[in-house]
Specification:
By secondary structure, the protein is of the alpha/beta class. The chain is built from 13 helices and 18 strands. Helix 1 crosses helix 13, helix 3 runs parallel beside helix 4 and helix 7 crosses helix 12.
């Protein structure tokens, strides 16, 4: 690994009087993860307030599909540094153990001794993820030991990157220009390594949780172990205790965190993702009504109730695929190991459903522009809001959100024109679909949702930056013409 990382974009020299913030975020451009969009857009708003960012993220050579064009969308004052993912030393240990076992076994049993620990892909078919209430520990169950092992392995690999990022951070902080150190996760273990960096530099520490840490409600099956929660509780307590500001991405997550840490309640705030004031492809509506979804179908995002409601409406209105269709892109071709096309066929609407792979962001936005109605599938994590919802709000399309009453999603959208239906309410979905289809057939075309002003990223970020400036006791001067600034590669 290159101990000091590599600068990916931004000026090689910066004015000594320029106020800067240091951000460590595993997900950030040129990575294409949806988590990287949050601070990609906040960087622009920070620049408008006179703050320049130095960002440490994963080096593109460690990414499967980096999008370098996203670097050019950053303000010119933003510097981005890439740090390689650490060598997976634990895999080498596993390999040595495996080879040792092979050498020690009798020659007659060659080919009969399994690997000491099966990798997650080779393990028996399991649910894609588990809810918190499903996660248990039974010392006699091998799968529970395997999950604990991979939970620890993931923790140390992510921590290894966080330590390397903090080493680079020490070099950058040596200039004395930075006024605060920030981290954004998940992965959340980087909050702890960033906390240590801020403490050594005697700078304010702000950490931003795009999803809950200790309060996370669902885990991938291969790491769904109580180990994750024990580590999270220990590290989160330490981070909250030392933080100048703690940021969650929904109001309910903020409220639960305040209840856990009442002594830090005044330092805990919420900043939802919000929609962005960026140029989008114009919405295009033809004679065909397109119900669209973009994203990942996780274990808790069952499309069956939606398909059942759709089947009812198709039968009632006598629709055919030329007049109506459901299109899904992203990691949306399977649900629970079953092809979505098969699920659609089982519900009697096979000819109406099309699926496609994930697309680069520009192409995904173009896809959303073709939708008559955009749908957000349900999730059982009621403290989080699917980030795609905010993106949906910018398009001229009806929006159908499947969310439980009282969830963070329902709370955020309650005063808007978005249609919100409980995930199991097939009749409610059918009523919404029927009403929109009839209106569309009569010539009505959707506009952008109403009542959404408070859900813009700008509106959400204003209190955050104000609180940050108040907490660190300084405010940057606002530069001119920040909208035209571009990151120089």
């Amino acid at each position: 690994m290159r101990a000091r990382g590599e600068q990916l974009c931004g000026p090689s020299l910066v004015p000594p009087q320029q106020l800067r913030l240091l951000l460590i975020s595993y997900h950030f451009p040129p990575g294409q993860s949806v988590g990287g969009l949050r601070w990609q857009m906040l960087a622009r708003l920070a620049a408008e307030r006179g703050w320049a960012l130095d960002v440490i993220t994963v080096h593109p050579r460690s990414l499967a599909a980096p999008d370098l064009s996203r670097l050019r969308q950053l303000p010119a004052t933003t510097r981005v540094f890439g740090v390689d993912l650490p060598d997976p030393w634990i895999e080498r240990v596993e390999g040595v153990a495996s080879r040792t076992i092979r050498r020690m076994r009798p020659a007659s049993s060659a080919g009969s001794v399994p690997e000491p620990v099966a990798s997650p892909p080779a393990a028996a078919a399991q649910a894609a993820s588990l809810g918190r209430e499903e996660i248990r520990w039974h010392p006699t169950r091998l799968r529970h030991w395997v999950r604990a092992y991979y939970a620890l392995r993931t923790h140390w690999q992510e921590r290894g990157w966080g330590i390397a990022a903090a080493r680079l951070g020490e070099v950058l902080l040596a200039t004395g220009q930075h006024r605060a150190v920030l981290s954004s996760g998940p992965p959340h273990v980087i909050h702890d390594t960033t906390r240590g960096l801020a403490a050594r530099a005697h700078l304010p520490f702000i950490f931003d949780m795009r999803d809950p840490w200790r309060l996370v409600q669902r885990l991938p099956e291969e790491i769904a172990s109580p180990v994750v929660y024990r580590l999270a509780e220990h590290l989160e307590k330490r981070a909250v205790r030392e933080a100048t500001l703690v940021v969650t991405n929904t109001g309910p997550a903020r409220d639960q965190l305040r209840a856990l840490y009442p002594e830090a309640a005044t330092r805990i705030m919420a900043m939802m993702n919000g929609y962005d004031d960026e140029v989008l492809p114009p919405s295009r509506h033809g004679s065909r009504f397109v119900l669209a979804y973009a994203g990942t179908i996780y274990l808790d995002r069952d499309p069956r109730p939606l398909f059942q409601a759709t089947a009812q409406v198709i039968a009632e209105l006598g629709l055919d695929p030329a007049r109506f269709g459901i299109e899904l892109i992203g990691n949306a071709e399977n649900y629970g190991g079953v092809p979505v096309s098969q699920i659609a066929a089982e519900e009697g609407i096979g000819g109406f459903v099309q699926t496609g792979p994930a697309r680069p962001r520009a192409q995904a936005l173009d896809f959303l522009a073709t939708a008559t109605m955009l749908v957000s599938l349900p999730q059982d994590s009621d403290l989080a809001i699917p980030s795609k919802i905010f993106e949906y709000l910018r398009f001229q399309a009806w929006v159908l959100v499947l969310a439980e009453p009282g969830s963070a999603t329902a709370e955020a959208l309650q005063d808007t024109s978005v249609d919100i239906v409980a995930p199991a309410d097939v009749g409610g979905m059918a009523r919404v679909l029927r009403a929109r289809l009839v209106a569309y057939g009569q010539g009505q075309r959707p506009g952008t949702p109403t009542g959404i002003g408070h859900l813009s990223r700008r509106a959400q970020a204003e209190p955050f930056f104000a609180a940050l400036e108040q907490r660190i006791g300084t405010a940057a001067s606002r530069p001119a013409n920040t909208e035209s600034l571009q990151c120089q590669e």
